[in-house]
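Example 3.2
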Amino acid sequence: MSEDYRLDKRQLRNAFGRAATTYDQAAVLQREISDRMFSRLDYIKYAPDTILDAGSGTGYGTQKLSVRYPDSRLVAMDIAWAMLQHAQPIATGWRRFWPFQKKQIQYLCADMERLPVKDESVGMVWSNLALQWCNDLDKTFCEVNRVLKTDGLFMFSTFGPDTLQELRQAFGHVDASVHVNRFIDMHDIGDLLVHNRFATPVMDMEYITLTYDDVMRVMRDLKAIGAHNVAQGRRQGLTGKMRWKKVIERYETLRSKGKLPATFEVIYGHAWKLPPKQSVITPEIRKQIIMS
């Protein structure tokens, strides 16, 4: 990965921490994608004993997992402790629609690229829109494989390269700094999964376009969910008035039917952990070993 696109994890943690109280009001897309992930579970007959929700945020997916798998042990993990604090069961917002859960959920503050979890201790790793915040996806998949039990399930969603293309294009006509994070192609994700000993991944993709009245509403929504630009190649300091005016003018050329589009390329995937490699020693090889 280019150093310009490498994410500053301290800045990332702070951004999500600050967004903890505003996240639920703005995370309409995140909840919709989580629901679409859950619909895919209808075709998978599997009941994991332990589930790790990696990148759990304020707990929307965690609560749904607890209802779907009432006998499973649940661990909600996020890089921002403020998000986990906000995820504690409180009868406000969407939480008031969930039945009371007697089962206790464990909360873990950690980075998905360095999981403080025992080897082969998890039956399913669930991750909704967290992989795009990892600098080294190869290392991340290696970690996920390590903590999964043999034949365990890894189910995830993430954003693809066309995400926020309108915003990227608008800023691209102003300067060469990084204003939108880089997202990895679906086929590259599949290759990395296979490289890290996951069975043939099942992958699919769709485009979801949100519409806004103006550019500032796009930026406010991104800020409210903590999706700040934390790439090391980002422009330092505030964007000047003239530069920002040019960004708005460029974005405005995309207005259609009175609205401005914000496109998200959403990638869904799941894969199973393969059993360990077993060396096969033929009688001929065994004979050679004995004679050597």
